[in-house]
Amino acid sequence: VQAYIRAGKTAEAVAFLDGLIASDPADIRALGIRGNLHLASGELDQAEELYREILRIEPENGNAFSALSRLTRKRGDADGATALLDQGIAAAPDNIGLLARRAVQHEKDGEFDKAIALYEQVYARAPGLPMIANNLASLLADHGADDPAVSARAHAIASRLKQSEVPQFRDTYGWTRYLHGEHDEALAYIEPLTEALPDNPWIWYHLGMVYAALDRPGEARTALEKALEKGGDGFVRATEINDRLARLASN
Fold this sequence. Notes:
By secondary structure, this protein is mainly alpha-helical. It contains 16 helices and no strands. The chain has helices spanning 2-6, 10-23, 28-40, 44-57, 62-74, 78-91, 96-108, 112-125, 130-144, 148-158, 167-179, 183-190, 193-196, 201-213, 217-231, 238-250.
């Protein structure tokens, strides 16, 4: 199927899958891939039918719950999508994909303690997944920096990201260095990211705080003002930034 799709032969891929399903209607893998092709084509009803058939055959199939959740969110039903993730976790509590997707949703909803708890579960099972390491370290750094033990854990987890070329991962690594007083190391990682992610307020906020720690007040003011500009009125670090700007102005 992948070979057909890479070659742009979608019709052949569909025919091949349909043949597999016709010969074995309980072929869960074929049903799932066919459902994904329906979903990619916007054929939501057909995709849902196949995902639900998978759950009829295998009620604890976490991937089917995850796919149904994506489909339901695509229809605009955010509450229904979340409910499906919860149902999936109840049926398949060890499914890493479901746990990670639910953690992301908790994070988006501002339920940071719940997000951290789920990321911790996933990280314990799959410590080699960079996205999970990044998200967990970032949350710990942002919401537990005042606790030395939590800050140290964020620092240790983020160390796995040192060689990453993903800008967001490099930012997490750099920020956890800053929190541990490694300001030169933090600067080396965060400063170049203003070119890769020029509209990201978090990058400018982190850079401004690093500049301030390095006693470079002019550059700190510029970066922090950009963080406010890029983040808008609702930027969650706005109060902290304004306080820091006031202190910089008085020095």
